[in-house]
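User: I want to check something. If I give you two sequences, will you return the structure for each one separately, not as a complex?

Assistant: Yes, each is folded on its own. Here is the first sequence with its structure:
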Amino acid sequence: MGAGTATEPLKGEDWAGEMGERWLAHLDRFEAMIAPIGDALLARAAHAPGERVIDLGPGGGATTRAIARSVAPGGEVLGIDISPDLVAEAQRRADREGIANARFLCADAAGVTLDEEPFDRLFSRFGSMFFERPVPAFANLRRLLKPGARIDLAVWGPPRENLWMMEMIGVVREHVEVPRAEPRAPGPFAFEDLDYLREVLTGAGFSGIEVDAHEGRQAIGGPDATPAQALDVVLSSMGVGRVVAEQDEPVREAIRRDLLALFERRFVPGEGVLMAAKAWLVTARA
């Protein structure tokens, strides 16, 4: 190990503040990076005209806009996100595209109440893993849905099968002591264990749980990102970058050098910095 030490595990930080701001700084690159999984979840969900849908944690609203197009005419979609910065940008993007049946609410979905009719569907691409108390949070979401309403979630699979994250952390651990994430703790890999995921959803009143795996190679920073651009996205906008920023300059520079070398090894011209990824695509009924 090097001289540095990280102060806390890598997990879901304050999305209402710092992490929302970081995501916004490289919004288009983040959207491009996870778009293939989002597209797979949208295809699985197959929203229909006339449906009213909640999009949980939509970030910049790319999935919200896609759902809005699918449920028109007659349907609508409400994006709920805890980050005011992302909500404002998502609304701007929907307005710019003339999508009138998409709207956004800045709120904590774990406790939000809505003074309107219950919704037909709930959708979430990587927006459901950060609840401190997931069973009550999902129970609250269920109260926003009609009986029998379908939910579709994408959550990250096991870390060992998500080398896009673990190889980066491995490089950082050559220089910095990074605490291990606690199993089942809020964060990107909260639902890697499908038994736990089923326990949470069942405890919140959902049933008929079905899970498929989505595996592929993820382009860090998007398919058009060079290794240097991918490095900039990681260090300026992801949780691992915050750990690196806490170190002194020699350690930071050594990590930058080694991460860039990793990305150069994984770079495929025309496709980007490609690293293995695995997500669970989850369907259940309220």
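And separately, the second sequence with its own structure:
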Amino acid sequence: MTTALLEVSGLACRRGGRRVFDGVSFALANGDLLTLTGRNGSGKTTLLRALALLVTPRAGTILWRGEEVREEREAWRARLAWLGHQDGLKGDLTVLENIAVAERLHGREADSERIGAALAAFDLASLRQRPVRTLSAGQRRRAALARVAASQASLWLLDEPLNALDAPAQKALHEVLSRHRATGGLVVAATHAPLEHARVLELGV
């Protein structure tokens, strides 16, 4: 029997007094990829933000290895890598500096080998010393994904990760997700486009 690492039970969120979703439940084990689907406004981003403790659920539990994550918020956030609609990069810092700073902010060592592999995976090695403000939208998205890939986070929370990516970059993302999962990593992604070998949770039904 597969043991769940992340268990979400009866999660409910409100926004501006309006119900976004109620009773969301799922469990993820080593290597699982869950995609959140549904129409705009169905709560995909809100659910990701609730998992990241960026919004407070009205009801429900979020358990990691059987323990409520809200009781150890800093430890939980150290296990996460977050990619939102915005790339979350500092324009005046280089690609390399953005990744290194993100790791330090999460209390993790900036591992040069991991960072180098992440940059190579998204074809960014030649741009590593470029300030992010000089990059195209697609290059910035690849840099944001490289930041996630370079992390040592167990759980990746990705909001529309395919945005602004061309076909080679989309292929790179699928390969990076596969490698993360092969080492036991978990992924929850909100997306309108399918991701390979994913379970699907449709919101708003």
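Because they were folded independently, the notes below concern the second chain alone. The longest strand covers residues 18-28. Residues 31-45+74-202 form a domain with the Rossmann fold fold (CATH 3.40.50.300).
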